[in-house]
Amino acid sequence: MVRPLQTNTFNLQGTISDKLLFVCGVNSLAPWGLVIFVRTSTLLNAVLIPVFDSADKVAYYMNFLKNDNEKIVATLCRFEQDHWNIDSKSFNLVWPKGGFLYRPLTNK
After folding, report:
1. How confident is the model at residue 27 (pLDDT cuts 50, 70, 90)?
2. pTM score, whole prediction
3. pLDDT classification of 25: cutoffs 50, 70, 90
4. Among 57, 28, 45, which residue's Cα sits nearest to residue 36?
5. When comparing pLDDT for 7 and 62, which is higher?
6. Can you list the alpha helix ranges (DSSP code H) found in the chain?
7. Within a domain: 103
8. CA distance 90 to 16
9. Distance between CA 27 and CA 5 in Å, rounded?
10. Parent domain of 66
């Protein structure tokens, strides 16, 4: 799934440029998805990529697509030298599922 980023709390430039992404997971469930960021012209887009290495993760992702829940528990992850460092704090990321109007990106 892809959608334009509407707020940019982390001052993201794009995963390739700043080496940042979000890891999506819930409590004891190992990560079920990754959110990478891709800049296209003046837009920064968030891309939700599922991790389908177990039946539980497939079921969780498919359920997320079908339900009304728009919150994802996410953790910031940064590539440094030769490995990924995952932050110790998680946060709620809102992934709107309904129609939306394009608004210019803001740095709030």
Report:
1. low
2. 0.85
3. confident
4. 45
5. 62
6. 15-18, 55-66
7. no
8. 22
9. 25
10. 2-94
